[in-house]
Amino acid sequence: MALIVRPAVTDLGHLRPGAPAFNLWVGLFFYIPNVLAGVFGLLGGYFTDLFGRKRILVWSILLYSVSACAASFSTSLTQLLIFRCTTLIGVSVEFVAAITWLAELFPHPKRRESILGFTQACHTVGGLMVAGAYYLAVTHAEAVPMIRGGHEAWRYTLLSGLIPAIPLLLVRPFLPESPLWRERKSTSRLERPRLSELFQPALRKTTLVATFLFACSWALPLGAIQHTVRMASGLAEVQNLPPRQIEQISSGVQLFQELGGGTGRILFALLIIHVVSQRRRVLCFFVPSLIVFPFLYFFAATRTLALLHLGIFLATMLFNGLHSFWGNYLPRVYPTRLRCTGESFAANIGGRVIGVSAALMTTTLSNAMPGAGHAAQLAHSAGTVALFFLILGLAGTFWLREPDGDRLPD
Q1: CA distance 355 to 348
Q2: 391 backbone φψ class: left, alpha, beta (φ>0; ψ -120 to 50)
Q3: Which pLDDT belongs to residue 3?
Q4: What is the chain's Cα-based Rg?
Q5: 147, β-bridge pairs
Q6: Domain locations in the chain?
Q7: Which CATH class is domain 5-175+199-399?
Q8: How far, CA to CA in Å, does 110 sit from each of 189, 280, 410?
Q9: Closest CA to 257 of 127, 125, 138
Q10: Any bridge partners for residue 150, and if so which?
Q11: What is the C-alpha separation between 257 and 217, in angstroms, rounded?
């Protein structure tokens, strides 16, 4: 959404970038879908504990693929917003179902940690495909059939969201169910999950701290990183270029963002071999972020394109390393019958319901922040919001619980 929100809002809403109404719609596109995805994602986590990892995983991928495709045919901002909501609902459910499914497929601790780390690194491949699809759409849109009577690049980019459904349909018959979940289900040892159990004495601190820290982590992309592409058009070397060239430069910024994301996830996968303490792992990404994010948004984003590329690469690298941390950590602190429910509460209520407030904070503050132009105001606003949540997150790591042993809790 970060790459296509500006042209989509401009085309469908006929709004000028930087105008209060434009900023409001951008904030809504980041806020409302994430809140709904958080609520329904929590429900999806409950269903994953109840009906199985594989079934919910497959349907969640189909949901977000079909929704992204349908969004490409939107005729109004409201319609696009609705399809964005269903897309993110599928994504939020898929994240929890996928990491739980993988964690339970591999019982050996070191192998499980490595597979979760490197599998999450593959997440960036999708982002690289989106950046490539947008560049191709901007450059060669006239060579492909029209959508809704035009050749808008953002529509073709959304249409490419159907791609993940194709290999899924081919491999679905060969996907195994989680052996751990299947065993509990077949022996009637799998009790119905209850949300209230997350707040019983044994899990209360774990749930509250994980939810708080996930909110601080998820505030970084929603309050800062996903707004960075829109800052490129305000650079002195870019702002007077033809519209097509500006969009190509925007896809280049997105490319550096995705490359940084992949690097961060690979870095985490290598880090877990040498760093055992969960708190030390998370500090490896929180502490450098206190330097990188202010550098990017208070300096680089208003100077040159080269500095912007460097800054977004480093910032996304650190965030994605942090995000991979949660994919490895959460399965280790909840028992099998509550695993997806607990993970989903931390990730969806923490990240998508609480952390998403950063998106509205950034777009609202940008109307009042100092800066030479709306892009500079947006950069300063994003930097302020990111720094605020980084300080909160760093403080919260002191209460992070260490898992009991290497095995998944029974």
Answers
A1: 9
A2: alpha
A3: 67
A4: 21
A5: 150
A6: 5-175+199-399
A7: mainly alpha
A8: 27, 18, 18
A9: 127
A10: 147
A11: 17
- Indicate yes or no: pTM above 0.85: no
Convert 253-279 to b/e letters by CB count within 10 Å (16 or more is b). bbbbbbbbbbbbbbbbbebbeeeeebe
Query: What sign does the dihedral 401-95-363-354 (CA atoms) show?
Result: negative
What contacts 158, CB < 8 A, 6 or more positions away?
4, 68, 69, 71, 72
pLDDT value of residue 311: 96
Which among 400, 216, 381, 398 is positioned nearest to 296, based on CA atoms? 381
Type of residue found at 100: T
Residue numbers in the chain where pLDDT is lower than 70: 1-3, 121, 188-191, 410
Burial readout 1-12 (b: 16 or more C-beta within 10 A, e: otherwise): bbbbbbbbbbbb
Structure tokens at 313: 């690469």
Q: Are 383 and 298 in contact (CB under 8 A)?
A: yes
Residue with tokens 């309050």: 223
Check if the beta carbon of residue 179 is closer than 8 Å to that of residue 105: yes
Tokens for 237, please give them: 């070397």
Give the tens place of pLDDT for each residue, 151-200: 788 788 888 877 777 777 777 777 888 888 888 777 766 567 788 888 98
Q: How far apart are CA 80 and CA 51, in angstroms?
A: 31
Position 228 scores a pLDDT of 92
A 10 A CB-CB count for 151 gives 17
Q: Is 301 helix (H, G, I), strand (E, B) or coil?
A: helix
DSSP 52: -
